[in-house]
Amino acid sequence: MRIILSFLFFILSLNTFAQGFPEESLAYQYYQQGSYDKAAEIFQKLFNKDKNENYFDLFFSSLVKGKKLKEAEEITKTLNRQYPDKLNYQLALGKIYLELGKNTEANKIFLKAIENCAKEEYAYRDLANLFYKYEAYDLAIQAFLQGRKVLNNDTLYTYELINLYRYKKDKPMLVQEYVNLLAAEPTLYNQAQTVLASVLEDNTDYMLLQTAILKKLQKDPGNDILNSLLTWQFIQQRDYESALRQLIAQDRRSSGTGIAIYNAANIFLANNAYNTATKAYEYLVSKGAQNELYLPSQIQLINTRYEMAMNAKPDSILLKNLAVQFNDIINQHGLSTKTLFAAKKLANIEAYHLKNFTKAEAILEQALKIQNLPPLETAQLKLDLGDIYLLNKEPWEALLMYEQVSKSYENQPIGSEARFKSARLSFFQGNFKFAKSQADILKASTSQLIANDALNLSLLISDNLQNKNDSLALIMYADAELLLFTNQTTDALVKLDSIHSKYPGNSLSDDILLSKAKIYTKTTQYDLAVKQLNEIISNYYDSIWIDDAIFMLADLYEKKLHQNEEAAKLYQKLITDFPGSMLISEARKRFRNLRGDNVIP
Fold it and tell me: Which of 71, 149, 242, 466 is deepest in the core (most CB within 10 A)?
């Protein structure tokens, strides 16, 4: 930090002169305007008056910027003869030699200055500051390292060297400094993560960090901070198995609660590393019911299995087993805010996969009676319950739930979501004009997601009510969307395929393709999904669904087909061609991640 402040002092001094006497202000004005000859003339006069070093810096800089190098050389030589012990004049002469291409002469001066520096901590710092001022960053580093060697203290100048290595993007040395620093100053762990994440770009860079940490740990294997940093870099490389092994070993050494493992397990789960997340939660559960993380880990363990099941072709036996496990948690611990998560997952399985609508309704209706339930949680439960009423062909009960939330949370995101669900229900029922009027209101929603969905619904309706043929086709399409919503994918697909044969020449081709892509994705028929999405991209580039199609296809290539290069191309296409899309932020994040940037927390 000191070396940065030293550099800033030169800039600040200009402002100081601007506020001083008229002669100084005029010189400063010339300097700022690029009239270096005029500025040099005044600054020389001011410097000769009282030998103020600040005037020399500005005078010297004016000569260099004005390409008066020979004049600058003669003046600095004279000053060196008059003041042989002043380092700033020596280094100024070295700077001139560099500008003149006399590198050998310059290096002799610089190396002599380092060699003859007073054997004091601040002397080396002052010398490095002078090098920094002349943009001789390697020499500033050399001065600091020489100071460490002479003073026999490897912890000196750590912050200054970190700043220099970071500025130069010298990754190996920056890594080494931070590893050494953290071993002595563990409180800087978060800062180290932030800086390293901004500099290290790919797995090769992180291997530098891993090597440095492991080397340090050979001498101090029990250093918790370095072990934590090692775990962090494994996560950055997506080497989740190694991260978990490191965390478990550290937890066993310290006999801890396992909070670090729990937090990491949540990261594994968020990144679809289901097997590693499962192992992490199983380890925490094995610590026993007395551990404070026992219940959360038990819930997350079942949730991980649930997510695994949802990301594969649904297996009724597996889903029934998961339902039993969620139900066991509720029976064992009671229905409360702590087990609400299990109740919601259980209701989802019963309703959307096992078709036990009445049982799912009962679960959520009971959940609404939980004491001290947060208001927003109550609202979300009502929306979920409304969806299940709709699944169970109870549209009026569903509408009642949506309207309750909409009125209670008007102009709030969850209220907008409720109103959109109400508009979507009207669409499912074929009440297109009312659905469009509701969607048009929601286009101004503060929630970007709802606003985008509302816009798409409004355009879908208006684009396909141009004639009777299109209107009748839209009714069939709404029926198919309801079937898809109720997870009746086979029936939805049959309905979609029959629209063109019953109403040839209708205007729903791109909409049908996207719906079929969603069905094929849901049923893990990824090749067929890719085919539908490619057809949209190739033939319907002006479709309202084009950005959705590009993102969906990129997501399939990345998450399901593991073709990262193709995924990156599509994310980049979305970023370039559709900068106004609401998907742009996530696309940019995914693209950077595939490119090798660090984006993982």
Answer: 242
Q: What are the backbone dihedrals phi and psi of residue 580, each rounded to the nearest 5 degrees, phi first?
A: -90, 0
Q: Is 512:477 a contact under the CB 8 Å cutoff?
A: yes
Residue 108 has pLDDT above 80, yes or no: yes
What residues contact 26, with CB distance under 8 A and at least 6 apart?
42
Axis-axis angle for helices 240-254, 274-285 (nearest 10):
10
For helices 489-502 and 509-522, the axis angle rounded to 10 degrees is 160
The rounded Cα 396 to chain-centroid distance in angstroms is 42
With beta carbons less than 8 A apart as the criterion, state whether 506 and 469 touch.
yes
Structure tokens that stand for 105 in this block = 């002469």
| pLDDT average, residue stretch 14-30 | 62
Angle, CA 523 vertex, CA 584 and CA 241 arms, to 5°: 70
152: left (phi over 0), alpha (psi -120 to 50) or beta: left
Question: What percent helix, strand, coil does the chain show, rounded to 5?
Answer: 80, 0, 20
* Burial track 427-460 (b if 16+ CB lie within 10 A, e otherwise): bbbeebeebbebbbebbebebeebbbbbbbbbbb
Sequence-distant (≥ 6) Cβ neighbours of residue 576 within 8 angstroms: none
Nearest to 323 by CA among 296, 301, 348: 348
pLDDT band at 9 (very low <50, low <70, confident <90, very high): very low
Tally Cβ neighbours within 10 Å of residue 490. 10
Are 69 and 96 in contact, with CB atoms under 8 Å apart? yes
Q: Would you say the C-alpha torsion 315, 316, 322, 323 has a positive or negative sign?
A: positive
In whole angstroms, give the CA distance from residue 273 to residue 308: 9
HSE, CB side, 13 Å, CA atoms: give it for residue 331. Answer: 7
Contacts of 308 (CB under 8 A, 6+ apart): 274, 278
For residues 334 and 338, give the distance between their C-alpha atoms in angstroms, rounded to a whole number: 9
Q: ∠ at Cα 376 (338, 365), nearest 5°?
A: 65
Structure-token pair, residue 176: 């080494």
Q: What CA–CA distance (Å, rounded) separates 77 from 96? A: 10
| Sign of the dihedral through C-alpha 534, 535, 538, 543 | negative
Rounded Cα distance between 399 and 71, Å, is 86
- The widest CA-to-CA distance across the chain, in whole angstroms, is 101
Gyration radius of the chain's alpha carbons: 34
Distance in angstroms (rounded) separating the CA atoms of residues 147 and 139: 12
Say if CB 296 and CB 303 are below 8 A apart: no
Which tens digit of pLDDT belongs to each residue from 332-386?
889 999 889 889 999 999 998 899 999 999 999 999 999 999 999 999 999 999 9
Q: What residue ranges in 407-505 does DSSP mark as E strands? A: none
Three-class SS state of 34? coil
**Is 150's pLDDT higher than 50?**
yes
Give the whole-angstrom CA distance, residue 550 versus residue 546: 6
Dist. CA 549–CA 573, nearest whole Å? 12
Nearest-angstrom CA–CA distance, 5 and 295: 51
Q: Is 3 helix (H, G, I), strand (E, B) or coil?
A: helix
